[in-house]
Specification:
One of its GO terms (biological process) is regulation of DNA-templated transcription. By secondary structure, the protein is of the alpha/beta class. The protein has 21 helices and 14 strands.
Length: about 475
């Protein structure tokens, strides 16, 4: 007969499949130590006991514990003597002190203890404190990882180009960085405007790197790609049970930015309801997670970017005027590629060399025809489109030079050929719609290919098509 597995058995087996938390109890009261060890083992933890500091040191070397419950008063010394060694090893420590020795607990927290308990210890409270300490450790590791990842993401960031337009942008970045570096006031918000693919994200990262706290996190939030039902939780975080799928507490991206930079890309796509909450954060410099009553201070610098005309959106009621004025403190305009003169060829050569090195290919120059095509093409997708087209030409070309047909540009269209826009009464909305319709025509209604030509994601393309009523 097939043996049935009860829910309790399933829970037990699931617990066995996960690695157990290794807990070391350093405590000289034998009866209390036995009770704690028994309760922890019942809860699924591996627990070892040491009655002295010396025995504790030996077990730390032998078992490499994840967490230590450390008594302050021991036969051969004070737990405070061992605490710095444990913290240096990255071990989470919960100190235990007798009534009247709260000063020791406070000092232990200053030395790096995760939490403390007063004796006599309630065993249910002990288990709850261990769970809280585990959650705090996981959050710290997550933030440490995020910080390292973001530091790598900003390595080698630079804005290439010597045109007057780019020289002005670089001067602005340097000036904005100085305003933050030499002031103790709250960092002013920065709004970066420009067409899709002009390098707004690169400018934001370079601004972050130019400031004194460049070692702090850089958190990039793409407001256009985050699902509407998740964006509030992603930005502000949530507590356990705040909504149906909230199985645990989670730090939001605003908190994760700490005292670094929070980059809100495509801020114009943020829903109106969340615009009000973001404005509140910017005004009060406090953030509250979903389902929580506790507020956390916000120290991060806010940098926003958009390819939309926010002023026009304000007039149309699609963007809050108060948030617009709050964001529009320091403004930077990224020039489109067609207005950057010889920067186009400089960037094309840079992307070609970059691709050749990455794939171990022999260097190939651009032919005169390819150079002329690069100069004359309108580049609606700007630097992003240039990078993709050049990389494709380098990878697929078979001749000794990069030829015009390798670039695979859509007919080398001139601006007036690329879009049909009325000469008078033109608006940003009509221009965007015409640009999308043209890209779809050139790609035979292939939405992914049209999005690639425009330098945007497929999701952003679908969103804009729906907004303009464009169907394929």
């Amino acid at each position: 007969m097939q043996e049935q597995v009860t829910g309790q058995d399933q829970k037990f087996q699931a617990g066995r499949s996960r690695p157990k938390l290794r807990v070391l109890l350093v405590e000289d009261e034998v009866i209390f130590a036995r009770a704690v060890a028994k309760r922890l083992q019942q809860a699924g933890y591996d627990c070892e006991h040491a009655a002295t500091l010396q025995a504790g040191r030996e077990l730390v070397r032998q078992m490499a514990p994840d967490m230590i419950l450390l008594d302050m008063r021991l036969p051969d010394g004070n737990g405070l003597d061992l605490l710095p060694e444990l913290v240096a090893k990255g071990i989470s420590v919960i100190s235990m002190t007798a009534y009247g020795e709260v000063a020791d607990a406070v000092y232990a927290m200053k030395l790096g203890a995760t939490d403390y308990l007063k004796k006599p210890v309630d065993l249910d409270e002990l288990l709850l404190t261990i769970e809280k300490a585990q959650a705090a450790t996981r959050l710290k590791h997550h933030l440490d990882y995020s910080r390292q990842r973001n530091m790598h993401a900003t390595e080698g960031v630079e804005l290439l180009g010597d045109s007057p337009a780019m020289s002005s942008v670089k001067a602005q970045i340097e000036r904005f960085a100085q305003l933050v570096t030499f002031s103790d006031a709250i960092p002013p918000t920065v709004l970066i405007q420009g067409e899709t693919g002009t390098g707004k994200d690169v400018a934001a990262r370079l601004l972050h790197l130019s400031c004194a706290n460049s070692d702090r996190p850089f958190v990039h939030v793409d407001c256009a790609s985050l699902p509407a039902e998740l964006i509030e939780s992603e930005l502000f975080g949530h507590e356990k049970g705040a909504f149906t799928s909230a199985q645990g507490s989670r730090c939001g991206l605003i908190e994760a930015a700490e005292d670094g930079t929070l980059f809100l890309d495509e801020i114009g796509e943020l829903p109106l309801a969340l615009q009000a909450k973001l404005l509140n954060v910017l005004e009060r410099r406090m953030v509250r997670r979903l389902g929580s009553t506790k507020e956390h201070p916000v120290l991060a610098r806010f940098v926003a970017a958009t390819n939309r005309d926010l002023h026009q959106m304000v007039l149309e009621g699609r963007f809050r005027s108060d948030l617009f004025y709050r964001l529009n403190v320091l403004t930077m305009n990224m020039p489109p590629l067609r207005e950057r003169g010889d920067d186009i060829l400089l960037l094309a050569k840079h992307f070609a060399v970059q691709t050749e090195r990455r794939y171990g290919l022999q260097p190939r120059p651009f032919s005169a025809g390819a150079t002329s095509m690069i100069r004359e093409y309108h580049w609606p997708g700007n630097v992003r489109e240039l990078k993709h087209q050049v990389s494709r030409a380098v990878l697929l070309g078979r001749e000794s030079q990069i030829m015009p047909h390798d670039l695979a540009l859509p007919g080398s269209l001139q601006p007036e050929q690329a879009m049909t826009i009325p000469e008078r009464g033109v608006t940003l909305e009509s221009a965007e719609k015409a640009l999308i319709e043209n890209a779809l025509r050139q790609s035979n209604n292939n939405v992914s290919e049209a999005a690639r030509q425009l330098g945007i994601t497929r999701m952003a393309m679908r969103y804009r098509m729906e907004r303009h009523g464009i169907k394929v």
